[in-house]
Amino acid sequence: MIESTKCTICGTEDNEHYLTSSDRLSPNEKDNYNIVSCTDCGFLYTNPRPVNQSDFLAPFIEGGDAFNLLADPKSISDWIFKIFHPASVRWKRKTIDRLPTLGNLLDFGCRTGDFLFEMKRAKWEVMGIEADELGKDFAISHYGLNVVSSLEEIVERGEKFDVITMWHTLGRVPDLNFTLSSLKSVLSKNGFLLVALPNILSYDARKYKGDWIGLDLPRHLYHFDRSHLEKLAQNNGFRVVKQRNIFWDTLHNVFMSALRRARQHRWNAKWAINWPLLFWTLALSWITGSKLFLFGRKCDGSGILYYLTHENNN
Fold first, then answer.
1. Residue 41 belongs to a domain
2. In terms of residue numbers, what domain contains 252?
């Protein structure tokens, strides 16, 4: 079943078509979904969208997670994941280590717990939230982690966390405002909420359009740029204090988007992987997200990490 929805940022129901893309995990990618733009504030979101997200998340967890792909990569995309995933986990840990706080950490959407286990080895007290039973059970049995199924369980316990992370999970939750307000209630006074998101206005997103891997329809219900994430944070009592481009996202998104485009149009030779074009796109995506290019500008990379604090923090 699908449902129509309105803009989460401003509440406007009117929208206009932005682009159409298919579910990359459906057979032959035949299931198409629309992204619309709010006619008032311009926020991009999937509409209509599936009512039951679990129907679409299950194959993503079962067929595409670390405990399967790292052990037995079978395709080019699997090998890309095998190469980038361990380095990405270490990058996340180093990012957290630079924060002016140390204590307990909550990972929202922890999947199989790879990142949480890395933080546990770094002497952090960790807890995870994972709605998918396959991922949650693996994190508990393989890593011995403390993982619950829902944010409501965390709120009911009344625990506070010094750092909360959302690695590409905010765009998947049906109710953005409820989720952020709930996370605000369990974030310590001087804590940080780190939100990693694909940037819908990045160079590679505009280049690959409906083939851009960062869309990930229909799992991604919302498609953020900087201004709309900042507005959403403000609406829920947060302040964005820092933004940082995610280099690993640029590598992953460009390579996977080029591969997807080649697969989508495999019967047409002109859409085969164009390696010069791929590296040109990769170079421009990296340059537009680099510190050299960002002099006097904001982040424009393929993926952006936002640092949020309580709005009344100095």
1. no
2. 53-310
97: exposed, middle or buried (C-beta count within 10 Å: 0-12, 13-18, 19+)?
A: exposed
Q: Check which CATH number belongs to the domain holding 202 and give it.
A: 3.40.50.150
User: Could you tell me which of 221, 291, 267, 194 has the C-alpha nearest to residue 48?
Assistant: 221
d(CA 13, CA 255): 36
Enter the tokens of residue 17. 């078509």
Domain count for the chain: 1
Greatest mean pLDDT range, 135-139, 144-148, 268-272, 283-287: 144-148
Full-model pTM: 0.89
Considering the domain boundaries, does residue 35 fall inside one?
A: no
For residue range 67-111, list pLDDT tens digits in order.
Answer: 454 555 566 666 666 677 788 899 999 999 999 888 999 999 998
Q: Does residue 132 form part of some domain?
A: yes
Please name which of 18, 42, 39, 57 lies closest in space to residue 229, comparing C-alpha atoms: 42
Q: Label each residue of 35-80 as H, E or C.
A: EEEECCCCCEEECCEECCCHHHHHHHHHHHCHHHHCCCCCCHHHHH
